[in-house]
Amino acid sequence: MCDKLNIGDVMFMYSDEKILFHHSLDVNPMNLEANLAAPRAHNRNEILYFISGRASYLVEGSVYKLVPGSIMIMRSGEMHKIVIEDNQPYERMALHFDADIMNLIDKNGVLSEPFNNRPLGVGNFYSSNDIRIGHIYECLKSIDSSPEDNEMRRIAITSNLFAILYEIKLAFDERGNKKFSNRPVQSLVGEIIAYINANLSSQLSLEMLSEKFFISKNHLNRIFKIATGVTVWEYIKLKRLIMARNSILAGSSAIAACQSSGFNDYSAFYRAYKERFGVSPKNQNK
Questions:
Q1: Beta strands in the chain (DSSP E)
Q2: pLDDT tens digit string along 181-232?
């Protein structure tokens, strides 16, 4: 994972090299808000089922108000954070999974379309008006009550994951593109996010972006942090590190990944990479 998960009081958890499932409860989430709400971007897709609490989700600048029974989906590298609104217990179930886990059954990537075939920060939220929440909840409960045997838990998670993804795919197709034009974010921040992600390997700086979008550096940083939870430069650095990590996992050398992801100084890249991922870029695949 790109970040250490802060998953509170774990009621159920399973983890292997491809899948992570957890059912977690924070009784006093305001006491943990700094940890819970730290912006993160994982190297796996994520499905989050919101059970209780009062919170919103920020995803790439978009704000989604959570209600019990709502679902959030995030693809690999999509930055997100929880915003705790009061001290009501925060309970959720979450599935993190490598995209390639579906290759044998879904060779054409049909079930990945709701994650990949949309702009960053758009179309992340599903409610009971969009999707068969009851069926998804039953799938998650089946995982949550699976036997303690690790092999049976893996089978329970994998089989139910496909059922959940199928429901999300049906809802995604029903939704079509009609909501993609209504990005729940300030349009300027959305434009800046899109520009950064399209130009990660190019020269990027706060000064350049402020000139391009005709906004002062201070104001740009202020509205960007409100929308995403991080400054412009923190966002650029994290996205470049994710890009470099994906390159290394795909077989690139550490130096090549550094250069192709927009870093000009290998020593700075090395330090940032190790701080973020807990391993040096050269040892990533070991």
A1: 9-15, 19-26, 45-52, 55-59, 62-65, 71-74, 80-84, 90-97, 125-126
A2: 545 445 788 889 999 999 999 999 999 999 999 999 999 999 998 888 889 9
Q: pLDDT for 18-61, tens place per residue?
A: 999 999 998 888 876 555 667 888 889 999 999 999 999 999 98
The angle formed by the CA atoms of residues 19, 123 and 248, to the nearest 5 degrees, is 45
Which token pair is 281?
């870029």
Cα distances from 149 to residues 55, 59, 213, in angstroms, run 34, 35, 55
Instruction: Render pLDDT for 81-125 as a digit per residue (tens, 0 to 9).
Output: 898 888 899 999 999 999 888 887 898 999 999 999 998 998 999
At residue 131, what is the residue type?
Answer: I
Give every strand in the sheet of 71-74, ordered side by side: 9-15, 19-26, 90-97, 45-52, 71-74, 125-126
Alpha carbon separation from 51 to 55, 91, 94, 124, 173 (Å, rounded): 11, 5, 11, 17, 25
Of 244, 286, 280, 284, which Cα lies nearest the Cα of 262?
244
CB 55, CB 92: distance < 8 Å: no
Other beta carbons less than 10 A from residue 215's beta carbon: 17
**Count of C-beta atoms within a 10 Å radius of residue 173:** 11
Q: Which of 15, 32, 39, 36 is nearest to 276 (CA)?
A: 39
